[in-house]
Design goal:
This protein has 231 residues and is of the alpha+beta class. It contains eight helices and seven strands; from the N terminus they run H-E-E-E-E-H-E-H-H-H-H-E-E-H-H. A seven-stranded antiparallel β-sheet has the order 4-3-2-1-5-7-6, sandwiched between helices. Strand 6 and strand 7 form a beta hairpin.
């Protein structure tokens, strides 16, 4: 079995999504990439999480050609591959249909930075893509979903913005590893839940100031970060 360690990490990330209540039944998927070999390990399509084993994960190259595995890869594989090609700094992708984040995606509404919890992880509102055209949906839907995400990030740094809401669909998240991608998915759902409660409590709620936003994001990220322990 090739990429044994990566497969184990990808399986664990998928199971983390289940443990955190972000997926139901066979919803959602996570993948990880070995950049040196140019190979991706991803959850198989429609296989229940509770019976999945590392050897069940499917390994493909960046063109989507199966390298190892007996099962069919996730139907969202083309979207993952587009992201790996466009965002060279990422090592994992996680896709869920978690309740609150998906609700904001269905509303086609970005999530404003209402508080410092959001600011700790995202350097700006969590963005939402444009809706796909009927032709884009009909032809190469999953590929066009990936392109829609990449277009939305034309002026954004994906390493400072580890997730996106696909309009009418659900969130896709990423990170330096598949473990971090799953972590980002958990954070996005929590931020979406907090934002939902915020606009319920105060429909006129506004984003925090740029000064407060910068302080919280930059104390955890970048050259001047001082949060946590030195590695």
């Amino acid at each position: 079995m090739i990429l044994k360690t990566l497969r184990e990490e990808v399986l664990e990330a998928n199971l983390e999504l289940v443990r955190r209540g972000l997926v139901l039944y066979t919803f959602g998927n996570a993948s990880g990439i070995d950049r040196k070999q140019g190979l991706v390990a991803i959850k198989p399509s429609g296989v229940p999480y509770e019976v999945m084993k590392p050897e069940d994960l499917v390994v493909v190259d960046l063109d989507g050609k199966k390298v190892e595995g007996d099962l069919r890869p996730s139907s969202d594989l083309p979207t993952h591959l587009i992201l790996y090609k466009a965002f060279e700094g990422i090592g994992g992708v996680a896709h869920t249909h978690s309740r609150f984040a998906t609700a904001w995606a269905q509303a086609a509404r970005e999530i404003p930075v209402f508080g410092t919890t959001h600011a700790d992880y995202f350097y700006g509102p969590i963005p939402v893509t444009r809706e796909l055209t009927p032709k884009q949906i009909r032809d190469d839907y999953e590929v066009n979903t990936g392109h829609a995400i990449v277009r939305r990030f034309a002026k954004l740094n994906p390493l400072h913005m580890p997730g996106v809401l696909v309009a009418g669909h659900a969130p896709f998240c990423w990170g330096a590893s598949v473990t971090e991608a799953a972590h980002a998915a958990v954070i996005v759902e929590e931020i979406a839940a907090m934002a939902t409660v915020t606009v319920t409590a105060n429909p006129k709620a506004k984003a925090i100031s740029k000064h407060l936003h910068d302080k919280h994001f930059l104390r955890k990220h970048g050259a001047t970060a001082y949060y946590g322990q030195k590695k």
